[in-house]
Amino acid sequence: MIGIVDYGMGNLHSVSKALERLGATYIVSDNKEKLQSCDGLILPGVGAFKDAMEILNENGLSSFLKQWVEDEEPLLGICLGMQLLFQSSEEHGHTEGLGFLPGHVKRFAGKTRAGDRYKVPHMGWNQLRYLQPEHPIVDATEPGHVYFVHSYVVHANTSDVVVATADYDGDVPAVVGKHHVFGTQFHPEKSSTLGMSMLNNYIRYVAEGRE
Amino acid sequence: MLTKRLIPCLDVKEGRVVKGVQFVDLRDAGDPVELAAFYDEQGADELVFLDISASHEGRKTMIDVVEEVAGTLAIPFTVGGGINSVEDMRAILRAGADKVSLNTAAVLRPALIGEGAAFFGSQCIVVAVDAKWDESIESWRVYTHGGRKPTDWDITDWVKEAVHQGAGEILLTSMDQDGRKTGFDLPLTRTVNEVVGVPVIASGGAGNRQDFVEVFEDAGADAALAASIFHYKETSVEEVKQTLKENGVVVR
């Protein structure tokens, strides 16, 4: 059973529909006991880092998630949900994140070093490059295009948590992971067959852990 | 590298897809859910659904359509038409749409863009603009109400204001070119692209595959939207992408 963490900041419908199509059983909940009974969690998220952390702190979900990760249970963050896994963000002032992965979240500069302007948000389909092709999330997939929508980007402190990148004024961490904590900056549920394969990989990972 | 996007647009009236040529003369072109799946398979990068229902019932039907589409589609889609409030936006986004597109309501009350962006994030607020060349101001004038009402806004002032308010994307329709099938409005697209830092979707006028090459290469659009050229199978998303690739435009 997958638990989708409902904290009021995300397109839960798309993620749950995607799980349905993949034949996974899931619940959508903000209830810690219900989430605790799941085999793996998905932390979705659309919106601002600061608002998201405030909600997670207020309703105690952040300490729940910290315990969850300490207990070595699987967690997948999507889009903002992935950024929340890192230490902090500069979105609307400095905000502490969940701190499961080493790194910080900063806004795209909107200008290259050479001074050329580029669009922010990074919106649309971008090509992935795999740094860890054997990683459970990208396992048995070919690096193709996936759908991104974000204005802030993760700067990981160590490259070993970066599984795949996309090129947008430099390397954008697209899939991250450390032990049983994973994240995708893009929306796998909106990234056609490749995205669905990665979601399926996560579902399989969760199912294997249960056995 | 970020690819250029092709976006088929489906005009939906009372739950059925129709397409107006220059905003009138509607023809029925099918079932929205079926068409959405068809375009997904063809390699469309996104879809836009424009609700042109006049009635309250029609709008309620749209929510059902959105839910059904969200259940089958694995690519992003935007819903526009008749969205007047944060509540309207919430209903559409909750039903599973990825973005909402605001047009007339945003011009009437620009703060609505900011309210939507604050609640749901800029990335899901698209501002759709209908613009027409106006000799008297030597620029393009913004129109509302499906192109029926001229406003006092000059195109560059309005798109800057929309982005300032929190628009995450501009969907730019040339009323001069819409339905003519003689190509996108390159000067208009270029003008808007130069003044905003968010993605610009060019719309109106696609008549053949080469038109897409031009709007990306010459006008710098981030995405191109078209309806009838795809609906009536004059060309396909696949064929357009092939032509784009042959011309060095990076596509998925």
SSE blueprint and pairings:
The complex is a heterodimer of chains A (211) and B (252).
Chain A: E1 2-5, H1 12-21, E2 26-29, H2 32-36, E3 40-43, H3 49-58, H4 61-70, E4 75-78, H5 80-83, E5 88-89, E6 95-96, E7 103-107, E8 122-130, E9 145-150, E10 152-156, E11 162-167, E12 171-178, E13 181-184, H6 192-210
Parallel strand pairs in A: 1-2, 1-3, 3-4, 4-13, 5-7
Antiparallel strand pairs in A: 5-6, 7-10, 8-9, 8-11, 11-12, 12-13
Chain B: E1 5-13, E2 16-21, E3 24-30, H1 32-42, E4 47-51, H2 56-72, E5 77-80, H3 86-94, E6 99-102, H4 104-108, H5 111-120, E7 125-134, E8 139-144, E9 149-154, H6 155-165, E10 169-174, H7 186-195, E11 200-203, H8 209-217, E12 223-226, H9 228-231, H10 237-246
Parallel strand pairs in B: 1-4, 1-12, 4-5, 5-6, 6-7, 7-10, 10-11, 11-12
Antiparallel strand pairs in B: 1-2, 2-3, 7-8, 8-9
Keywords (chain B): Amino-acid biosynthesis, Cytoplasm, Histidine biosynthesis, Lyase
Pfam family, one (chain B): His_biosynth
Main location (chain B): cytoplasm
Which features does this protein show?
heterodimer, A: 211 residues, alpha/beta, Rossmann fold, 6 helices, B: 252 residues, TIM Barrel, 10 helices, EC 4.3.2.10 (chain B)
Explain the overall architecture.
The complex is a heterodimer of chains A (about 210) and B (about 250). Chain A is an alpha/beta fold. Chain A has a single domain, classed as Class I glutamine amidotransferase (GATase) domain (Rossmann fold). Chain A contains six helices and 13 strands. Chain A has helices spanning about 10-20, 30-35, 50-60, 60-70, 80-85, 190-210, and strands at about 1-5, 25-30, 40-45, 75-80, 90, 95, 105, 120-130, 145-150, 150-155, 160-165, 170-180, 180-185. In chain A, the strands form two sheets. In chain A, strands 2-1-3-4-13-12-11-8-9 form a nine-stranded mixed sheet. The longest helix of chain A is centred in the C-terminal third of the chain and has 19 residues, at about 190-210. The relative contact order of chain A is 0.17. The model of chain A has no long low-confidence stretch (mean pLDDT about 95). Chain B is α/β, with parallel strands linked by helices and about 250 residues long. Chain B has one domain (about 5-245): Aldolase class I (TIM Barrel, Alpha-Beta Barrel), CATH 3.20.20.70. Chain B has ten helices and twelve strands. Chain B has helices spanning about 30-40, 55-70, 85-95, 105-110, 110-120, 155-165, 185-195, 210-215, 230, 235-245, and strands at about 5-15, 15-20, 25-30, 45-50, 75-80, 100, 125-135, 140-145, 150-155, 170-175, 200-205, 225. In chain B, a hairpin with a 4-residue loop joins strand 7 and strand 8 (about 140-145). In chain B, helix 1 runs parallel beside helix 2 (about 55-70) and helix 8 (about 210-215) crosses helix 10 (about 235-245). Chain B is globular. The N and C termini of chain B lie close together (about 10 Å). Mean pLDDT of chain B is about 90; it is low at about 20-30. The interface of A and B includes residues 13, 18, 144, 151 and 189 of A. Chain A: Pathway: Amino-acid biosynthesis; L-histidine biosynthesis; L-histidine from 5-phospho-alpha-D-ribose 1-diphosphate: step 5/9. Chain A: It comes from Geomicrobium sediminis. Chain A: Pfam families: GATase.
